[in-house]
Amino acid sequence: MIFGRDIQPTAAIRGNLQFTHAGLVTATYFINPLGYGLRKASDKFDVKLAHHALINSLPNGSLLLGIQARLNTVDVLTKMVEGVDLAYCEDYAAEVVSSYERVCAIMPHTRIFLLSIPVGATNSAVSGLSRIWRGSTTTIDATAIGRADLDTYDQKADEILSRIGGDFDPVPVPAAMFQWLWEHYLSRGAFGEPSAPTRPGALDDVTSAVFRSAALDEGAQADNSRRLRPSFVPVIKVVQPDSPYLPSYQTMLTPHSFPYTGMAFPGGSEFLSVLEGLGDVTVDWGMRISTKPADQVTKNNELRLRRLGEQMDQRDQEVSFAHSTLTSKAQMLGEYNQHFEVNSGESEVSFTTVVAVAGHSHEATLDAVNALKRRYKRFQVEMTTPVGAQVDLWSMLIPGSPPRRAFDDYAHIVPSDMWAAFVPFTTSQIGDDSGPIIGVNLLSGNFEPIHFGIMEAALHDLSASFAVTGELGSGKSYFLKLVAVLVHDMGGQFLAIDRSQVGEWEHFAAAIDDAVIIDLANPSVSLDPLRLFDPRVAGERTLDTILPLLDLSPTFGAGAVVGSLLSPRGLAEHGIRSMLDMFHTVRRLRDQQGNGEEYADLAARLGTVVERMPVLFDPNLPTLRLDAAATVIRSHGVALPTAEELTTPHLYNRLPLTKRLGTALYELVGVAAREAFLTDNGRFGLLVGDEAHHFTQTQVGSAVTSDFSRDGRKHLAAIGLASHDPATDFQGAAHNLVPNRFVFRQRDETLARNSLEWLGVDLEETPFLLQILREETSPPVGPGRQIPEERRGEMFMRDALNRIGRGKVLGPARADRAAAMTSTPSAAGASGQKALSRQTAT
Fold first, then answer.
1. Which of 39, 82, 359, 410: disulfide with 365, CB 3.0–4.6 Å?
2. Cβ 269 vs Cβ 294: under 8 Å
3. Under DSSP, is residue 436 helix (H, G, I), strand (E, B) or coil?
4. Sheet arrangement for strand 717-723
5. CA nearest 29: which of 110, 120, 119, 131?
6. Are 674 and 643 contacting, i.e. CB atoms less than 8 angstroms apart?
7. With the CA atoms of 159, 272, 297 and 23 taken in that order, what torsion angle do they form, in degrees rounded to the nearest 10?
8. What is this structure's pTM?
9. Is the distance from CB of 640 to CB of 656 less than 8 angstroms?
């Protein structure tokens, strides 16, 4: 049995600098992992190049760590409230409070990536590494470490980081990180495991007294009932005498062999990516590396080749397989040497990898170890659990730990470009760094919360617009309502167009204070653009509505006439203040002698729509106000063209009048939202459109979408669109300028393919994702083909940083909000609610 304090190398901590008993000084940093997940192969090669530069710049004895730890619930909630004044957002404060229990129940984890590099020794006469290899130790006087010494070590660390570059954005860890890391190792996998400090803190000082003691029982001998026969089980039982929690059972795995034929990149070399999602165990990994430059490697290869030649000469007359084996080795050595001669910037990497699997019981740990070994068989990587070397390998994950024999026994040697294909510092994280929680990450296996900082993005001059695609019943509308209610709760406002017959948005908005419901077929307010907009732009906005509605050319005949009437001069000359005034003016001018037939044509065309569109021509209706917290425009009673009719010229020219009217009103709502939200009023505005092709396929709607996508970030505004087929509906600005994209279940193969390509997935590289989207994303199962509650809301996501992953939408944490979003109103109930809401609007 070994006591943990005996293998804890730290003598003193100064910020992120660690001083060991052996005289070694290391600097430790948080590493920002690079986005990986489901990105294209070209992006993954860029990640590999960044790792290549990293490994060629690290000094010998560097330690790379990937530590799985429980997220601190308070840290998660703190990210939710960044940039939100809870004193004015009581609804959002209630959402954050309700999120506490949900986050605790999910118990999300994360993987913290660390880099520890040697930067010097306390005795310059003998290097720290040399002292370690010689086995000598010394006592560090923490009070004797001066500011000049610290500056020297910091300067050395800065030189190393400068060679690495800024891809990984290293940040010095606080001194408390060393204490947390030690306590994490002692309680790894147990119920008392501490939460991770996921953010940098103060660079204070720590002494070795903060490290708790523990007993490391290799083989769990204390559990062995046969005292006379020692246990040879590859497990370490870690017991903390002063801890009330149960002991931790840990097993150290290390690669015994890699595939003889090599590991293809991408897809076959990222062997550390299989460590996620093993259930109720904790899995950490560590990798110690040392490198040799190419010229030294070629010299060593020449010496090895000379020895092989001597052995071949000695066995030249021997009848055995030895000669052919030596010939094969000589050929492989020649290829290996040529690799370094051709690539002069290469280096040789010697690395030792340790995977620590830990659970609260021996059985749980053993099950996870066997599951992990089965996973590695797919990579043709053989993992071993060395008996008798468990404690030595356990200590390798401790920064500043002196080298032990086991480190060399299980080391592997590869060229640096092949090592870079392991890409250890990568992440499947998606979403933003802060903002409300919209779901959990399924791809990483740690169930990290997905933050969607829609309002925060606009404040940081980024586009907050988003688009959603999926089949009927896949969760598109639910997600749109989720984002809308979060915007409302954080002090913003939204306008949504509701096409459903039962009025699901109307039913949802009824649970929100200061909500206005408008029915375009039975209007309670006016959308007359001459009354709605500022007089400086009212004429142009009206012209955009009238010309396509009446099928007029802007420069010929009746179209030219209406253009003249709606100019600032024409409006003032004829006293036109409303659409009805314009109609009366046209009829008056038609009856005057000397005016051409174009006035009669215009009057006839207007006469066909005046009675049909009271929402435009009734002067007694109050104009729409867009300062309400929530506005829902019900358009179920308005006929709208299909996507094919909008995109096919001869079908569009033959559109019936009812569909032209519907399209004009639909566009007018979008224009009104643009005028209201794309202004600097200090309040975030979200325009929600569930039928995206009516915005993206028409000229006016496309302009509205483009304006929100381009300029929303300048005016605290965004647009949220939903569609069944992104290939036809998300074109132009909706395709190129909307960064946040969500794909829900699509069982149709063509639509699924279009959705994944729109997301940015290369299906030639990852064809299996098509099956996952069609068959394994919120799949209907069992009798009645119902979707289990725990599988609802599964989706693919592409965030603002172009990272692609897979997640699950959770919905609001507040029970009342969730009930309003999930319940579907009946037709009768919707009619009654509509009448009540209409009274409220007036």
1. 359
2. no
3. strand
4. 449-451, 432-441, 804-809, 794-798, 740-743, 466-469, 717-723, 685-689, 493-498, 630-634, 515-519
5. 119
6. no
7. 50
8. 0.85
9. no
**Residue 758: in which H helix or E strand, if any?**
helix 749-759
Find, among 429, 70, 132, the residue nearest to 284 by Cα.
70
What is d(CA 493, CA 487) in angstroms, rounded to the nearest whole number?
7
Q: In 432-549, at which residue ranges do the beta strands (DSSP E only) sit? A: 432-441, 449-451, 466-469, 493-498, 515-519
Q: Are strands 282-293 and 382-384 parallel, antiparallel or unpaired?
A: unpaired
Identity of the amino acid at 208: S
Strands 10-14 and 205-207: antiparallel
| Strands 24-30 and 109-121, bridge-based pairing | antiparallel
> What is the rounded distance in angstroms from the CA atom of residue 658 to the CA atom of residue 608?
11
Map residue 15 onto helix, strand or coil. Answer: coil
Q: How far apart are CA 563 and CA 527, in angstroms?
A: 20
Lowest mean pLDDT among 11-20, 242-251, 357-366: 242-251
Cα distance between residue 529 and residue 262, in whole Å: 68
Helix (H), strand (E), coil (C) string for 603-637? HHHHHHHHCCCHHHHCCCCCECCCCCCEEEEECCC
pLDDT tens, residue by residue, 648-666: 777 777 888 788 888 888 8
Pair 67, 114: CB distance under 8 Å:
yes
Q: How many CA atoms lie within 13 A of 636 on its CB side?
A: 17
DSSP conformation class of 364: H
Among candidate residues 825, 772, 529, 788, the one with its CA nearest the CA of residue 671: 529
Is the backbone of residue 508 left (phi > 0), alpha (psi -120 to 50) or beta?
alpha
- Closest Cα to residue 543, out of 585, 571, 575, 574? 571
Q: Parallel, antiparallel, or unpaired: how do β-strands 205-207 and 248-257 relate?
A: unpaired
The answer to whether 698 and 646 are in contact (CB under 8 A) is: yes
What pLDDT, on a 0 to 100 scale, did the predictor assign at position 154? 92
Rounded CA separation 477/789 (Å): 17
* DSSP code, position 789: G
The count of residues in the chain is: 842
Among residues 112, 111, 246, the alpha carbon closest in space to that of 192 is found at: 246
Please state, in angstroms and rounded to a whole number, the distance separating the CA atoms of residues 23 and 20. Answer: 5
Cα 147 to Cα 640: distance, rounded to the nearest angstrom? 74
